[in-house]
Amino acid sequence: MSRFEVEYIEKSTISPDISGKSRAAGRVLRLGISYARKFAAAFLVLFAAITLVFFSLQLAPGDVVDALVGDAGTDISRAAAVAEWGLDKPLYEQYTSYVARVLTGDFGQSYTMAQPVTKVISDRIWPTFELAGAAGVIAIVIALIVTILTGTGARWAARLSSFVELVLVSTPTFWLGILLIFFVSFKWNLLPVVSGNRCVVVILPASALGLRMAGELIQIMRNAIGKAVNEPFALSAKARGISDIGFSLRHGLRHAALPAITVSGWLIGSLLTGTFVVEHLFGRSGIGSLTVKAVLARDTPVVMGVSILAAAVYVAVSTLVDILYVFVDPRLKDGKAGGR
């Protein structure tokens, strides 16, 4: 008996349970390696953001000490800034000291508020997350309703949906916020802008943020459902008499979820950026309005802290989206699309 015949007999006599466990262990290993790569990439991006913020301060016009203490800084405050940030040391020591401080959550002292930057940001962060979360809910609800009703419906409904998408996507958030304030609050007196119940007050600014995001989601999800309609399974479902809305609910949304999740990281980043404008417009006390005031006052430590926080949030969301994508797309669990 040849060596190849012996190997064939040995392989054919392997227990199916052992073979199945080996395949499962292989899938777990591939999934673990994929997650490790994602977390490593996230750390590198965050580290690059910290490095960029540090050297942007070094390359800024004028003296670094002036950027840290402001135009009204005294000799005492300048000396304190030099000691705190180690500006009398070589650049590489300043850099390593800065990275170590940031990784421990120490962003320095805000000279306009005389408080640690960490406390200044933590006091303002919840209203921003509250606004972004409400805007995300509004965007998802609107996108789901419009997609279900028009994804596979009549041609006139598709054209109307396309027009609505175009208007929402092309309208600047700032202008949309002004329109909502003028009509909904001032002219029709339906919702307050500032005073009132906390849950009610957030509706207008969240709508200004969420409507644009809804338009982008509608475009992506309707295109995905439009492609799914031409698949063989869709023709089979239509032959069984399924309605357009029924097809969207049972099959279309599942296909639309993949591209929507793919771009959700970018959309959330855009959402957080939009809070800068909306909070300033609606007079909300959050990270966006804090950043605007810090830039105008040249409060550099606060600007640096917010920049790193924004990078950290974006990296965390992008990593979470990648992990979620693995559970939505079964091919990734088997490593068939592991290159993503």
TrEMBL record:
InterPro entries: BPD_transp_1_N, MetI-like, MetI-like_sf
Transmembrane intervals: 39-60, 131-151, 163-184, 190-211, 257-282, 302-328
GO MF annotations, alphabetized: dipeptide transmembrane transporter activity
Residue intervals of the ABC transmembrane type-1 domain: 125-325
Any matching Pfam family: BPD_transp_1_N
Subcellular localization, as worded in the UniProt entry: Cell membrane
Protein name per the record: Dipeptide ABC transporter
